[in-house]
């Protein structure tokens, strides 16, 4: 499956997603690694098999094995961190003063440029809705020289990939309901 076959699965009522997916696949403000990794991390964070397969088929070959592993690791570690730090942020109290006591070694040694890994972590954090992580990763990528346009591009990728996943899941659910009726 490719991005083109994924776009073909998007219903007409969501044609804006189809158009956005196509334009973001050709985004030029990010490096090829940043672009491909943003797509891969976002697809995995969106938890949809069809979207993940299409994105991995399209963008996986554009990444080195190390970068592909790092994009997957960003989705994985942020799946944990976004839950934990969203709790800390929303509940407040003394939790922010306690050590997390969760292993996060990949953040220190992701196997790719730190800024790329942080950008992918930012995209995943946008999908998972963790404000504390969004602020932290945005601050880090900006400190490493990324522009607001580059940050916005990664978050736009996350938003569109997640919306495509939700749309496809909704269509599959509707089809299952129609068959049962």
UniProtKB/TrEMBL annotation:
Q: What is its EC number?
A: 1.11.1.28
Q: Give all residue intervals belonging to the Carboxymuconolactone decarboxylase-like domain.
A: 95-167
Main EC class the enzyme belongs to: oxidoreductase
Keyword field: Antioxidant, Disulfide bond, Oxidoreductase, Peroxidase, Redox-active center
| Catalysed transformations (reactions) | N(6)-[(R)-dihydrolipoyl]-L-lysyl-[lipoyl-carrier protein] + a hydroperoxide = N(6)-[(R)-lipoyl]-L-lysyl-[lipoyl-carrier protein] + an alcohol + H2O
Q: Which NCBIfam families match?
A: ahpD (TIGR00777), ahpD_dom (TIGR00778)
Q: Which family does it belong to?
A: Belongs to the AhpD family.
PANTHER family listed in its UniProt record: ALKYL HYDROPEROXIDE REDUCTASE AHPD
Q: What is this protein called?
A: Alkyl hydroperoxide reductase AhpD
Q: Which organism is it from?
A: Endosaccharibacter trunci
Lineage from the top down? Bacteria, Pseudomonadati, Pseudomonadota, Alphaproteobacteria, Acetobacterales
Q: Which gene encodes it?
A: ahpD
């Amino acid at each position: 499956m490719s991005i083109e076959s994924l776009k073909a699965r998007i219903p007409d009522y969501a044609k804006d997603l189809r158009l956005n997916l196509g334009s973001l696949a050709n985004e030029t403000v990010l490096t090829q690694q940043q672009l491909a990794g943003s797509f891969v991390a976002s697809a995995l964070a969106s938890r949809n098999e069809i979207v993940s397969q299409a994105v991995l088929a399209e963008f996986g070959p554009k990444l080195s094995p190390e970068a592909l592993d790092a994009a997957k690791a960003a989705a994985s570690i942020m799946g944990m961190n976004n839950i934990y730090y969203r709790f800390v942020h929303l509940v407040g109290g003394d939790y922010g003063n306690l050590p997390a006591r969760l292993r996060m070694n990949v953040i220190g040694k992701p196997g790719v440029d730190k800024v790329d890994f942080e950008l992918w972590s930012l995209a995943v954090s946008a999908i998972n809705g963790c404000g504390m992580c969004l602020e932290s990763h945005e601050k880090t990528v900006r400190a490493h020289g990324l522009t607001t346009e580059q940050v916005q591009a990664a978050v736009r990728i996350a938003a569109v990939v997640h919306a495509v996943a939700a749309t496809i899941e909704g269509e599959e659910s509707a089809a299952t309901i129609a068959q049962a009726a």
